[in-house]
User: What shape does this take?
Amino acid sequence: MAQPPPETRTLPNPPTDGITSLSYIPPGQSSSHLASTSWDGSLRIHDTSSLTHVMSQNLEAGPLLSLATPAGGSVWTGGLDGSVRKFDVSTSTSKIIGVHSGGEQSSDTEPKIACSCLSSMDGIVGSGDGTIVASAGWDGKFYLWDSRRSPGSPAATVKLPGKAFSMDSVDGKRVVVATSGRRTCIIDVRMPADEDASAKIVLDRESSLKYQTRTVRFFPDGKGLAMGSIEGRVAIEFLDEIGVESGKKKYAFKCHRAGDTVYPVNAIAFHPQLGTFATGGCDGTVVTWDGLNKKKLTTLPKFATSIAALAFNHNGTELAIASSYTFEEGEREHPRDEIFVREILDHECKPKSSK
Assistant: This one.
């Protein structure tokens, strides 16, 4: 007899405006604590095991667009005001680590431009306690921040070819940034012991997708990328140009479509152990895929509105889902913003080639 599908559970006290990011806090604090950011300007933490609201904190940064949860128990946020903030969960205190701005150096008189992307740099030398995080923004800048340095003083800076829309990192040494102009940049980050950090673009290429990239994620082994676009399509690309041998060819596939209606792909999240991934789109659906074997795995029951963000927990047994209208059809009445969690069964994410 087939096992019934797991129940999708709702978390209490969700954000009151568009949800922008979801991320589980690394084990050590609590493996079931989920952080979220939104346009209402508050950082929230929920316990997905007990389905309880642990805390909310307004960071006075305006809308929060990005989130990172490095090792060590801190939560970093990126604001529409350009700020990069580190929030200490144990003390409920926050401090500004840096600011994105229109000029080469941040100052109180320069216009601040949104910090749209954050990524933990766990794995880089010296970041075992979660002190190092990368950011990218609408100012077309990539920064490497070390919370042990003076506030506002980045450890490294890179000029990007355009506005940053999505970012991810792998092993704390390589970062991918998707920018305006359909550019995909790979940044090599180095922080040798007792030396200054360095970051440089080692690959800048045009996306194989014809329309703007909405989200990009590394495969867990760092050998490839999954990229979602506003035109209901996902591309699987590889990095052979920089010596990352994959033995595979890039391809793209259509998804999140209903008849002639094409929906943006807003979110991609990789299963941390199996290497398969989930996508979420403006059609309100979540689908799991085996990207290497070109197979669709499972479609979850449809949600009330757009899927704005996704996150697997650290062993891949649970998926957090933000159901939140992303204004793809402009201002209109829409269902309220919700965060759901759902147990993930092995067969829903197991690669098709595995026996």
User: Anything to note?
Assistant: The first helix runs from residue 346 to 349. Residues 10 and 340 are 5 Å apart (CA to CA). The chain is about 0% helix and 45% strand. Helices lie at 346-349.
